[in-house]
Design goal:
- The chain has 8 helices and 24 strands.
- The protein is an alpha+beta fold and 498 residues long.
- The chain has 3 domains: 8-34 and 461-497; 35-143 and 362-460, f41 fragment of flagellin, N-terminal domain (Up-down Bundle), CATH 1.20.1330.10; 181-304, no CATH class.
- A hairpin with a 2-residue loop joins strand 1 and strand 2 (135-136).
């Protein structure tokens, strides 16, 4: 049956043609944009997944930029420190020259002092001028701020500390084992030596971590004179002496297992006496029952020091002498305790870190776990050095360690401490660049690559498949158009019936 008012075949052709046009349009859109998902209707679940992956890509790209920026900051700081290190080496040379007292005139020493003053000014200038986009890097801007330093804390270095925004971190030390000098007690039984005759001598060799020295004493020499003789060479041996009753206490200058005191009786000269170890609870007293008579000493008797044993914030510390250190991802700190603090077991509220440090966000998320911090201390002349020996500015004209009429030995110690301090800071910055920033940058690169691949597999157009679909859609559209033309001509066949 043929119908004029309702051409069902035409309606069918129109519907199929419209569907094919929609398919063709989608193929054209996907091929022109390169995306399989252009709107939510294309793939709702895929859109959600791909947008999350896009967000992750944006965060990773930002993190990569942050790491590269952090590397640039450290490079600039390292450049300034390198020049300061060169100035310190020049300073070391000038001090060595100035120590040649008999070979230099006063005018030459004064000329050296002028150079030293200039070097100190240069170091201060570098410390104050080294900057990144106006932010000073070596003047203490990125040093950590602390409050409440305990009296039993002599010195400290905070290398890194992660702190929540607006928060603080308390640093607590629990001393579980005391630090000890190395030491021996040489008992003579009287206030003076008695070798039994004027021709007989008492010969003893004293050795420490710095070296050894042999001493010869005649009969009648007081213990005070013996101690004074040993102390004359303390810088050579590393051992100091003090009279205690009818004997002499020999101690290492420093604390810890690296220190030792060794005593060998080369010739007892008929001198009565004994060598005893020191008590672990009282370093000025001998340990009962530990005596070895002078006549029985065939080999040197030796005693070693003891490092402090402690934990810092619940982490077992690595110790050397009175210094305890930990290095974790949240806290990297080294604390030097006073003698009282290192020798008394108990808890010490060392200090509280209230802020500071150079903080970099080197991960895709903004949280404490993705942050890296490093402390960059002030390297001005007044800050380089130690509490024990003094600071670099003390080498200036008219000060205690100037090279014209000051203490040159102390000056060299200060310079050595300063070189060590700057070198360690450069080493920490280098390790931060290599191990933290370098590793993180490589990891972020891999993460970006994998995330991009995942996002591409969900959202990007498969050109091979979509080209085939385009060809198919084009053929179907052409076929549907021809069929629709035929269907539209069918009602004319009715006219043949009239």
């Amino acid at each position: 049956m043929s119908a004029i008012n309702t051409n069902v075949s035409s309606l069918l052709g129109q519907r199929v043609l419209n569907q094919n046009n929609v398919t063709l349009s989608k193929s054209l859109e996907r091929l022109s944009t390169g995306l399989r998902i252009n709107r939510g209707a294309d793939d709702p679940a895929g859109l959600i997944a791909s947008e999350k992956l896009r967000s992750e890509k944006a965060s990773i790209n930002a993190a990569i930029g942050n790491v590269e920026r952090a590397d640039q900051v450290i490079n600039i700081a390292e450049g300034g420190l390198q020049e300061i290190n060169a100035q310190l080496l020049e300073l070391q040379s000038l001090i060595g020259q100035s120590a040649n007292d008999a070979g230099l005139s006063k005018e030459e020493k004064e000329a050296n002092q002028l150079q030293i003053d200039s070097i100190l000014q240069t170091i201060d200038s570098i410390a104050s001028q080294t900057s990144f986009e106006g932010t000073k890097l070596l003047n203490g801007t990125f040093d950590f701020q602390i409050t409440g330093q305990a009296t039993t804390v002599a010195d400290f270095d905070i290398n890194a500390a992660k702190i929540e925004t607006g928060g603080s971190r308390a640093v607590n030390v629990i001393v579980t084992g005391s630090a000890q000098h190395a030491g021996l007690f040489v008992s003579a039984g009287a206030a003076a030596l008695d070798t039994g005759g004027a021709t007989s001598a008492f010969v003893i060799e004293v050795a420490g971590s710095k070296g050894s020295r042999e001493f010869t004493f005649a009969s009648g020499t007081t213990l005070t004179s013996v101690a004074s003789a040993v102390n004359t060479f303390t810088e050579v041996t590393g051992v100091s002496a003090a009279v205690s009753g009818t004997g002499i206490v020999l101690k290492s200058q420093g604390f810890g297992s690296d220190e030792f005191v060794s005593v060998d009786i080369v010739n007892d000269g008929s001198q009565a006496g004994a060598i005893l170890t020191l008590s672990t609870t009282d370093e000025d007293a001998a340990t009962p029952g530990s005596a070895t008579a002078f006549a029985s000493v065939t080999n040197a008797i030796r005693d070693e020091g003891q490092d402090v044993t402690a934990t810092i914030n619940g982490i077992e510390a690595v110790s050397k002498g009175r210094v305890a250190s930990i290095a974790t991802d949240f806290l990297d700190v080294s604390i030097e305790l006073t003698t009282a603090g290192a020798q008394a077991a108990g808890t010490i509220s060392a200090f509280t870190i209230s802020g500071g440090g150079a903080k970099f966000n080197i991960g895709p998320n903004v949280d404490i776990g993705n942050q890296a911090t490093i402390g960059i201390s002030n390297v001005a002349a007044r800050k380089l050095g130690t509490v024990t020996n003094g600071f670099l500015d003390e080498l200036g004209s008219g000060k205690a360690s100037n090279v014209v009429d000051g203490d040159i030995e102390t000056a060299q110690k200060i310079v050595n401490d300063s070189i060590d301090q700057v070198s360690k800071l450069r080493g920490r910055l280098g390790a931060f660049q290599k191990n933290v920033l370098g590793s993180t940058l490589r990891a972020l690169g891999v993460a970006l690559e994998n995330t991009s691949a995942a996002e591409s597999s969900i959202r990007d157009t498969d050109f091979a498949n979509e080209t085939a679909e385009l060809t198919r859609s084009q053929i179907l559209v052409n076929a549907a158009t021809n069929v629709l033309a035929i269907a539209n001509n069918q009602p004319q066949n009715v006219l043949q019936l009239l």
